[in-house]
Amino acid sequence: MPSLRDIKNRIQGVKNTQQITKAMKMVAAARLRKAQQNIQNFNNYFTNLDNILSDISDINLVNENNYLKQRDIHKILFILVTSDRGLCGSFNLNIFRYIECEILPVYKNYFNEANASFICIGRKGFEYIRKNKLIIDKKYLQLFSDLKFDIALKLSEIIRDDYLDFKYDQVNIIYNEFLSTTKSQVKCEQFLPIISLKHLISNVDSSEKFIIEPDKYRLIKSIIPKYLNSKIWKILLDSYASELASRMLSMEMATENTKEIIRILSLEYNKKRQDIITREILEIVSGANALLNN
């Protein structure tokens, strides 16, 4: 049975933990507000860039541009975006479950023949892929500690160069899309070749709507790398905001749990203390009665 000192020390330990979880929640909340603002500011730019590409593209350009042209798929790259640290609830776990339930079964033949590999952004994803003995091409750790647009530029350039060199025939990105403070969604989006534009391409020649100089092909060729850079940056922003939101909610729940543990331990402490007092009183009364009887 634990002594009063043991229970008291445990209560103090839980209170210390409560202070830590409160502080972590406040830090995550402050960073989340900034991350949400960054997403909101950037979404306008990305949406307009996507609309411009869709407006000036036509079906004849699909087979002329290496980023739009479909290939026979022999090798696939997955870019896995996770966190570097834990204590963020189910943020990473949801991605790992998605890989096990959606990615591995669908692309089973590619993995069995070593034609599927990963670029891991975040330590947790890297450790998961390594544990499952899947092929890792590259790893990028601690990117979110100082997240800047230059990071997205470098990543995009590396991926684009490898794709144009036919190292991969298809590139997919697995990440958590930020929807709200309380909700995120695991997504697997095809990064290359670009398919999102092709659903918006009209059979009507864009020259009927716009005057384009020097020509449509060269304009699209210059815009698409910017689009891909922006796509990577948007995904990094979404993932980071989702991680912060998950951490904030997780720490809030942990703080509430510490309150309940402190309440239970306090009841146990008071009950044990009352039992000790009652026992001491009985011993005193018994001793007094014994003296009177003598």
Structure report:
The protein is of the alpha/beta class. It folds into 2 domains: 4-23 and 251-283, ATP synthase, gamma subunit, helix hairpin domain (Helix Hairpins, Orthogonal Bundle); 27-250, ATP synthase, F1 complex, gamma subunit (Pyruvate Kinase, Chain: A, domain 1), CATH 3.40.1380.10. It has 6 helices and 5 strands. The chain has a 5-stranded mixed beta sheet with strand order 3-2-1-4-5. Helix 1 (4-56) packs antiparallel against helix 6 and helix 5 (149-164) packs across helix 6 (216-293). Residues 198-204 have low confidence and may be disordered.
Secondary-structure blueprint of this entry?
Blueprint: H1 4-56, E1 76-81, H2 91-106, H3 108-112, E2 116-121, H4 123-131, E3 136-140, H5 149-164, E4 170-180, E5 183-192, H6 216-293
Parallel strand pairs: 1-2, 1-4, 2-3
Antiparallel strand pairs: 4-5
Helix pairs in contact: 1-6, 5-6
Distance between the termini: 36 Å
Cα shape: elongated
Helix content: 55-70%
Low-confidence regions: 198-204
What's the quick description here?
This protein is an alpha/beta fold and 294 residues long.
What are the defining features of this structure?
single chain, about 290 residues, alpha/beta, Helix Hairpins, Pyruvate Kinase, Chain: A, domain 1, 2 domains, 5-stranded mixed β-sheet, 5 strands, elongated
